[in-house]
Amino acid sequence: MTLYALDLFGTAVFAISGVLLACRSNMDFFGALVLAFVTAVGGGTIRDALLGSTPVFWIQNTHYLWVILAAVIVGLATLSWMVRIHRILQIFDAMGLAVFSIAGAQKALAFGAEPVVAIIMGVLTGAGGGAIRDMLAGQVPMVLRQEELYATPAIFGCLFYLLLLSWSVNPTLATVIAGILIFSTRMISVIRKIALPRIALPG
Amino acid sequence: MTLYALDLFGTAVFAISGVLLACRSNMDFFGALVLAFVTAVGGGTIRDALLGSTPVFWIQNTHYLWVILAAVIVGLATLSWMVRIHRILQIFDAMGLAVFSIAGAQKALAFGAEPVVAIIMGVLTGAGGGAIRDMLAGQVPMVLRQEELYATPAIFGCLFYLLLLSWSVNPTLATVIAGILIFSTRMISVIRKIALPRIALPG
Amino acid sequence: MTLYALDLFGTAVFAISGVLLACRSNMDFFGALVLAFVTAVGGGTIRDALLGSTPVFWIQNTHYLWVILAAVIVGLATLSWMVRIHRILQIFDAMGLAVFSIAGAQKALAFGAEPVVAIIMGVLTGAGGGAIRDMLAGQVPMVLRQEELYATPAIFGCLFYLLLLSWSVNPTLATVIAGILIFSTRMISVIRKIALPRIALPG
């Protein structure tokens, strides 16, 4: 129940990040709607298609779609305010990343996938939508150019989640611990500007 | 029967728009084939994958593929003529948009999807192929930069189609009316250069 | 058995081509991992999703994922050497193209697809991963800009494979012959710089 509420919350936050990029890319209302939609459900949609969980989740539960529509309308109506609260949105986005990543790993496990697949599905669910958003706007996905850590917290968070489960930790507790790990690692990297080193060719 | 003929017609027209972009992007014959293919079947393919209607439609009915191959050959053989009849192709493209959008919404309904999903699937089927075409050619999808209305007619056409069905209008009649609505709205926006307003940051 | 070994070999080679592009695109370790992953399994993943063969192959057999991880680690550790043996990697890449294309066509046939679909699935499996890799790095897919033949050998190789099968040639022998045809055509075009002519507008 709480996880579902967090999932819808993450959907709204991711949708608003799509609206903001549509605005920066000089798009119109439809562009904002599309970018909000792909950011919010893109990762989970690919996950479901690869797992064979079709019709994909937002076809089976359309609440996600109404949350996105509401987020687009609210986002556009308060656009100048949304731009000003950029730092707060980063906090929300980190929450979305945490919730989506764990939820993605859980869904993969529910389909009988191996741990390594669950981690991939977690990262895909958490970071895939934003990658499609960036590509639609003509940019190399932020998650691949990462000035800060984005996918890395999701990878280690999902890995830690699987470890906790293998140690027979209560699943709800494991979700909370791994989620806090992802959220806090992401926020620390944003604040301290921590990034992975670039690949460089040895001289 | 007539709808199927229109569907194949839309396939050919969309394929030719792929050939024209391949030409403008300085690609070779294979590039033309790929861009024609993704423009013609890309939207419907994603729709089928998300609905779980697999193998996707052109694997089950390969007529679409032969129509695309024929369209590429005819398109390349008459390339200088195709470029000259640009305005006529826009009329055909508007027909393709109308047919594909309604057909996409119908397929979603046949899979038991809710109305809001049917609208998304309609727009995806009508405009998704062109979006993939543009991304493969290294451009931000035209449908997101829209100088004219493209997706908006599809959205309202599919919405109107669903309203007509809910009012117990004969399905064939509803298809014709909604199709004409999409086609005419699209053409009016092309002729009058009507577009949605850009999102702008307030002062 | 041998084909499976070749398949894993192709996976490793394609993964390394992803690492090299991530390096040229100034990405970090995660970027290298993602580009290696999509190059190695991207084409086969789309093939499986379109055929309805879900969960897709690397979810069912995670050996592919461990091969990719190993290839990324080895590739990054020997990066300056990998760049120097560029020509050798092209030979490996041509092997990967040959193996993946035939394997893709075979899988489509096993799902009862018609010959034309088998050819499309062959080309998609062989060249699709590289196309996604290029798009993620912000480039028009190499296979569409082809300075040399890449997809064309795959098309004709798959076509010839189907012809051999229709002539009741032993499937293993047909695989070997068609694979050698793809490999050698690709290598000749690399060495001789043979490409398809660009589409040009007449006068």
Automatic annotation (TrEMBL), chains A, B, C:
Residue ranges annotated for the Glycine transporter domain, each copy included: 5-76, 91-164
Transmembrane segments: 6-23, 30-51, 63-83, 116-136
KW Nucleotide-binding (keyword) present: no
Keywords: Cell membrane, Membrane, Transmembrane, Transmembrane helix
Family matches, as InterPro entries: Gly_transporter
Membrane topology, as annotated: Multi-pass membrane protein
Domain of life: Bacteria
Localization (cell): Cell membrane
Protein family: Belongs to the UPF0126 family.
Name of the protein: Trimeric intracellular cation channel family protein
